Amino acid sequence: MADEFLPLLGINVIDNAENDEDSSSSDDDENDLEEQNIDVDEEKEDDDENSNGENTNNTRRLQSITFDTSLPGTHSYLGDDLEDISGRTIYDEDGLVSLPLIKLPGMVLVPGQTIPLTLFHQHVVAMMKEVKDSDKTFGVVAYRYLENEEGSPTTANIGTTAEIFSYKDETDDQTGLSSASLMAKGRQRFKVVESRRTNTGILMAKVKILKERMLPEFLEGARPPSHCKFCCNPVEQDPMEQTAVDREGKVIANVSYVKNRQESVVQRMKQKLNKWNETLQADKLTNDPIELSYWVCQNLPLDDSQRLNLLSLDSAVQRLRCALSIMEKCSVICCRECKTHVALTNDVFSLSLEGPLGAYVNPHGHVHETLTVYKSQNINLMGRPTKEHSWFPGYAWTIAYCRRCTNHMGWKFTATTKNLTPQKFFGLTRGSVTPGMQQTDELTDGDTCDATYVKLYKT
């Protein structure tokens, strides 16, 4: 059974695919035909609804979800015997703190995001036990998100503190080895100042907690302090009257206050999310610009460098503006390796209360940030569906890989009961996809982001 989970780590995906083609090419043909039939059937349903003038495709999909969206966030596959841990630790902003760090490949933790972990290395398990008994906080940084000139792995200097809120550890009676399973919540951004390895192999770092900064008023730098007593309270003043005039009363400039600017960018983001995909239900999201900016960072299908760029910004307004710029250009999702188009942004939907993109851990301890989409293109399947260790209770998963480059893309999830909807969907791992910009109206099978789409940022 352990061999079946190796492709979850991206191991032996190509070899297994080649062996599978040699031994049973008919199975691959059936899988390819199955994927093609899925796209054709759904397109026919969409055409029928549009021709009848009924609800849009997004509205139909939104109403058809009967799955309990609270289940994925519980991470029930870790077991029901995890111990709840109370308490919370908040560090002073702009302060220096010494933290133990965990480096995760392709995992960029965002404040407010839940991360499950399964740990097997003995020194890391021992470290987590000490963290649990102290302030329950450790740091998470990503590595291999960029390749330097020498081709060696690169560790990000921007990370996020994680606070444990659920934990259990076990010891094997035969080997005496310990393992730990836990869930933690991202709390505060930090920048690594310096790091070192202890004698026990633990990575310790001195980090600076990054502060959330508020943008000042437009004229704050040009207005003498003595004039402040003549200024109106921006909360009480009508936004339409916030203008600058000369001695004759002529308007020479419009002045917007910070509060209104924040409200404006929040409303623009919600409008863009609704236009991008109605199933995201942006109207139910928070109006707090800081929390909304982190939600957007977590749930957009960004690559590691793009997400780190957003987290490096200290202003929530700047993060939202940068995310808006990306969303205005992004309309497709592509394979990170060969740039083949695999999904449209309007195929993204939320099957979890936390949003369409969540972090899950497989039995080997590898964390996958998985984006749920209704359908996918240019994807082949490998193996048979299994319910074991399913991240979405009631669904069986099948390994999916890119049809062009055989890169591991994620999984196809199929409902095991007829009354569960959606009956099928795909979970694309964020580390294998990259956002692209659509350049033509017509999509053809096998199109790539190099030919039909333009990558937004270089990694």
From TrEMBL:
Write down what this protein is called.
Protein cereblon
Q: Which family does it belong to?
A: Belongs to the CRBN family.
Protein's GO biological process: protein ubiquitination
Which residue ranges does the record assign to the CULT domain? 330-437
GO molecular-function terms, A-Z: metal ion binding
Q: Where in the cell is it found?
A: Nucleus
SMART domains, per the entry: LON (SM00464)
Which Pfam families is this protein grouped with? LON_substr_bdg, Yippee-Mis18
Recorded metabolic or biological pathway in which this protein acts:
Protein modification; protein ubiquitination
Q: Where is the Lon N-terminal domain?
A: 99-331
- UniProt lists compositionally biased (Acidic residues) regions at 17-51
Keyword flag Metal-binding: yes
Q: Which residues does the annotated region (Disordered) include?
A: 13-64
Keyword vocabulary terms for this entry: Metal-binding, Nucleus, Ubl conjugation pathway, Zinc
Q: Which residues cross the membrane?
A: none
